[in-house]
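Quick log. Single chain, no ligands specified.
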Amino acid sequence: MDLILVSIGFILCIVGLIGSVLPVLPGPPLGWLGLLFLELTVAIPTNYWLLGITFIIAIGIFLLDYMMPAISTKKFGGSKAGAIGAVLGLIIGILAPIPFGILIGPFLGAFIGEIVFNKTKGPQALKSALGSFLGFLASTIMKLTISLVFLGIFIGKVLANWSGLF
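-> predicted structure:
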């Protein structure tokens, strides 16, 4: 049973890592679920403090992920159309077979959203697109870092308790 829990936990941590860069998957919460599955094994002593602290971090990052692009877009003078455009641009950038689409998409999406739907002039639309892009980038780096930490904790605990698991 422990082997199944460890396997599911590892898969969740990897999917959480992938979810850190894909907007459709909640990266850190999935990584936290991976830690939870690991802690449910008999071979690994349950650390409730670790689970509690990492849970608070995962939920905090999850909430910040939705606020950061909007906050940075507003800080740079953008509108809701720019923020929505950034999200749509990200999705298109992921699906488009172009290099760096995941980076170019949010920027272009915010720019187009400002120009077309908010009728913003070129320089201000560019500034707001930059704000949206920086918010997206900061949010992604934050999620990726936490997901890597969760995966590191997972691997560390598995290696420390290797003999009890296998």
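Helices lie at 2-19, 27-39, 48-75, 80-95, 101-117, 122-160, 162-165.
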